[in-house]
Amino acid sequence: MGNVTLYNEDAFDVMARLPESSVDLIVTSPRYNVGMDYGEISDDTDWPTYYAEMERFLTLSYRLLCDGGVIAINVPKEVRLRRDSIEQIGRRVEKIAVRVELMCERLGFLPREAIIWVKGKEDTGPIATTYAMGSDNNIYVRPTCEMILLHSKGRYYYDNGTGRRGTKDVPFLDETKDVWWNVPTRVNGHPAAFPVEIPERLIRMFTCMKDGARIPVVMDCFMGSGSTGVAAVRTGRRFIGCEINRRFFEDARRRIAGSALQLPLRSNTGFHLTGELAGLQTEFGFGGDSLEPPAGEP
Ligand SMILES: C[S@@+](CC[C@H](N)C(=O)[O-])C[C@H]1O[C@@H](n2cnc3c(N)ncnc32)[C@H](O)[C@@H]1O
User: Fold this and answer.
1) Which of 15, 38, 246 has most ligand 1 atoms within 8 Å of its beta carbon, as the pocket-test mutant?
2) Distance 30 CA to ligand 1 centre (A)
3) Which residues have C-beta atoms less than 6 Å from ligand 1?
4) pTM score of the predicted model
5) What is the pLDDT of residues 222-267, one digit of tens each?
6) How many distinct structural domains can be found in the chain?
7) Atom of ligand 1 nearest to the CA of 194
8) pLDDT band at residue 10, thresholds of 50, 70 and 90?
9) Could you tell me how far CA 96 lies from the centroid of its own chain?
10) 295 assigned to some structural domain
11) Residues of the domain holding 32
């Protein structure tokens, strides 16, 4: 396996093919069923279809994760449905996060503490994603945050860990608080991208680099613009990414390759690509077997 393997393919097919227990951390954001234009796939299905897809994704994820591996799923707390939903399904809000949490537990995952990601800018505060606030006799509460749901497979402890504790030694002290309000947001052309800082924090929290141990594998099954791939490369982890949309895939590949080129390399033999560049699968490495662990990495 190269350091980075990208598939322009349906994630469900890729996940079914990859070996069992081969991934240390999944960081991903599935579609939210809010009618986004993703081209190849519909983001506007009925809710039973949506949750059946989610259950399939979680079942495949469970199989892929190693014991002690973690899955981090970014979803909205809830989504507000269309006006006709009250007549059709009797409610105007779909509680995605709580349903996915309960589904994870039903499928055997161990729950971890969830994170609330407040969307906004440090200097201007939380930004609501809609102006719609209803009427004076029926207020809508406007969303300014999303959830990052965290679950473990099998056990809470991760094999490669050093077991070290103590505030002085934790390079990500702020990240261990359950509200992330200060994540810089940048637009990168994808309609639903999360900033690289989100997966980068999660990678540092839930995988460890240790001398002599194998390099952890991070996967994003719905990689969109490739933010998780960029974070994995920056932190020296291996990465597997799937994206069904051809244009998003190409953008992600360029971004991830670009971030690899910016790395300080231990053996500066240069960045190389292998595999069929225009094909469905791309693998690339960075010259030498391993990346230099970033400074300050435990
Ligand atoms: C919410 S976006 C993820 C955005 C990503 N986190 C980022 O930072 O750019 C979901 C992505 O999943 C892709 N997608 C949806 N279903 C897929 C599938 N079955 N296989 C592969 N990709 C899929 C969509 O095209 C979309 O780009």
Assistant:
1) 38
2) 6
3) 10-12, 29, 31, 38, 41, 190, 192-194, 222-225, 227, 242-245, 248
4) 0.89
5) 999 999 999 999 999 999 999 999 999 999 999 999 998 877 644 3
6) 1
7) 8
8) very high
9) 16
10) no
11) 4-285
**Dist. CA 161–CA 107, nearest whole Å:** 26
The closest-lying atom of ligand 1 relative to the alpha carbon of residue 225 is: 9
What's the 242 CA to ligand 1 centre distance in angstroms? Answer: 8
More reliable by pLDDT, 60 or 38: 60
Of all helices (H) and strands (E), which one includes residue 65? strand 65-76
DSSP string for 201-228: HHHHHH----TTSPPPEEEETT-TTTHH
Query: From atom 14 of ligand 1, which residue's Cα is the shortest distance away?
Result: 222
CATH number at residue 276: 3.40.50.150
* Within-domain flag for 292: no
Query: Tell me, what amino acid is at 2?
Result: G
**Chain CA centroid to CA 95, Å:** 20
Closest by CA to 191, choosing from 31, 5, 18, 19, is 31
Average pLDDT over residues 77-96: 89
